[in-house]
Design brief:
Layout (H helix, E strand, L loop, with lengths): L8 E6 L11 H4 L4 H17 L4 E7 L3 H10 L2 E3 L7 H15 L4 E5 L8 H11 L4 E5 L6 E6 L13 H7 L3 E2 L6 H4 L5 H10 L3 H16 L1
Parallel strand pairs: 1-2, 1-4, 2-3, 5-7
Antiparallel strand pairs: 4-6, 5-6
Helix pairs in contact: 2-3, 2-9
Length: 220
């Protein structure tokens, strides 16, 4: 689906330095491959988002040079994490940066760990988000948040981390309740999460790294 670029969404994707990313996956992936797997998640997330017809552009907020180069190669805009004050500060900074260039942009925060993300499912979420000033999508566990949107002229006001579903509800954001958007809700923090993403069908970069991880485990 093609849309007028001025009507498209700008997505803000936060990514911490790879050396610190996805620490809870160490048991499943091993400490050496964990950072590469975290990058693969982000690459598959960004690549899928850029294929979504409702997405105009993707801004990745990160200070990791390896991740920045890999994600820029996919077509993402890299925004240095100049606040360096955590996830929500990075997201707010990314939204301000986007609107510095496009003051009336519709912006949405999207987790970087959605390796099963489907462009069509993301399009459905964005379509629903356009009906309200602010919306969010809960993660698969119904505890956290994987997506938060703000229509033109509305502050993003992110409150990610931990039990963020309740915080976003309390902030006045409308919860998107759609069936069939599991790939947008399936973030990956643990080995169990990764198994669920594998069942949905992960992107090719994550698949390649997971296959390598499985081979290393078998060899060990």
């Amino acid at each position: 689906m093609n849309i007028d670029p001025d009507d498209g969404w700008s997505l803000v994707v936060p990514l911490k330095p790879l050396a610190r990313a996805k620490s809870r996956l160490a048991a499943a992936a091993g400490p050496g491959l964990r950072p590469r797997l975290a990058l693969a998640f982000a690459q598959d997330t960004v690549a899928a988002a850029l294929r979504c017809g409702r997405v105009r552009d993707v801004a990745v907020v990160t200070d990791d040079p390896v991740a920045a180069a890999a994600l820029a190669a996919l077509g993402a805009r890299i925004v240095p994490d100049s606040p360096a004050a955590g996830l929500n500060a990075a997201l707010a900074h990314g939204a301000r940066t986007v609107r510095g260039a496009r003051p009336h942009a519709r912006v949405a925060a999207l987790n970087a760990d959605l390796p099963a993300l489907r462009p069509g499912e993301l399009a459905r979420v964005l379509e629903a988000a356009g009906e309200f000033p602010r919306t969010f999508l809960a993660d698969a566990a119904e505890i956290g948040t994987t997506f938060l949107s703000a229509r033109s002229g509305v502050e993003l006001a992110p409150a990610f981390g931990g039990a963020s579903r309740l915080r976003h509800l309390s902030s006045g954001a409308v919860e998107i309740r759609l069936a069939g958007v599991d790939s947008v809700r399936r973030d990956v923090d643990t080995g169990e999460d990764l198994a669920a993403a594998l069942a949905l069908g992960i992107g090719r970069r994550t698949a390649a790294h997971w296959d390598r991880t499985a081979g290393d485990r078998a060899a060990g």
